[in-house]
Amino acid sequence: AAWVGACAPAREATGDAARGERRFGEIGCNGCHLVNGVGGMVGPDLTGIAARSLREPARWPSLAAYLRESIREPRAYLVTGYPPDMPPAAKLKLADRDVDDLVAYLLTLR
Questions:
Q1: How far apart are CA 78 and CA 70, in angstroms?
Q2: Longest C-alpha distance within the chain, in Å?
Q3: 24-77 pLDDT per residue, tens
């Protein structure tokens, strides 16, 4: 996952976490991201992502904002040690609802 400096206005998760978990698998996020020991290891391990501190808190007003922008524009800020392989939300044809649902799901990963 990547981190973006220019965030959309801060807002917390408004999506459906259960739907986000389903979409995580349907979209294939688990092909690259590990969650609780299941998934790939191309991208960062997302286990416990909601319990982590932001790497650069001055860049993002909230963890939800960081996650939202990481899904929308993953190449804008790359986590050290990971390739720029994650496609942006537009390429995956994700609607705003999908992004919100994914963020809501990721915020349950404590």
A1: 9
A2: 33
A3: 999 999 999 999 999 999 999 999 999 999 988 899 999 999 999 999 999 988
Q: Which amino acid is at 50?
A: A
Contact in structure between 88 and 73 (CB atoms under 8 Å) = yes
- Rg, Å, the chain Cα set: 12
68 and 9 in contact (C-beta within 8 Å)? no
Long-range contacts of 82-91 (CB under 8 A, 24+ apart): 82/1, 82/42, 82/43, 82/44, 83/42, 84/2, 85/32, 85/42, 85/43, 86/1, 86/2, 86/32, 86/43
Burial class (CB in 10 A: 0-12, 13-18, 19+), 37: exposed
